[in-house]
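ARCHIVE CARD
Drawer: 12
Card no.: 0347
Subject: one protein chain, sequence and derived structure
Cross-reference: see card 0346
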Amino acid sequence: MVGKGHVTVSVRDRETDVALCVGNTRFQTASIVKVDILAALLLHARQSKQAISNRDRRSARTMITESDNAAATALYRRIGGKSGLIAVNRTLGLKETTPNTSWGMTTTTAADQIRLLTTLADEEGPLDHEDRTYLFGLMGEVEEAQGWGVPAAATSETTGVYVKNGWDTVANDDGLWQVNSIGRLVEPGHDWLVAVLSNHHKTQTAGVRMVEAVAKRTLGQLRELPTTTS
């Protein structure tokens, strides 16, 4: 294991239904909750039978691709803040995510982040095709400097890479770093949903190294499992 931080990982392959979850610790989300916020925005728009405004689309783009906090705060207010996210998370099937008035202090588990990604990617889920394409499209356009984490597990065969990372210092952990990564890797025969959550790092760089090492090692081993044919 790299470094001295705490880490949990959860993975599900939508093609084979192979799944793995190690650890059930709850972590602060930091900016990975921005995917949840965007999903809530899209669901609210669909329920009201109105398209999201151009202004909200601009905020959504900067929130996901640049991890802009001001945009996230504006959209969090738009969906009704803590109570709004709690309501939407019931629709999304989340069981271990507790929204906070301060969105970045929302707590979650790796398993619940896989529930989120599973619901968002599901063709029979609450988002329609256009909304799914829009959400994952933004996750596929994250700026290069923030393209770490789950993408480190991609191979030359990976055709789709989608990610949202979160990082911050945690006051009640002596100011040490929280570093999280959630994402999706599409490749022949596989559609991997991946969540790696970690904390207690002395530096953000140390956290990134751990998250990437765990993602690479976990997917590397799962790819070696024999596939079954019907």
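Annotation on reverse: Residues 3 and 210 are 7 Å apart (CA to CA). The domain at 6-223 is CATH 3.40.710.10 (Beta-lactamase).
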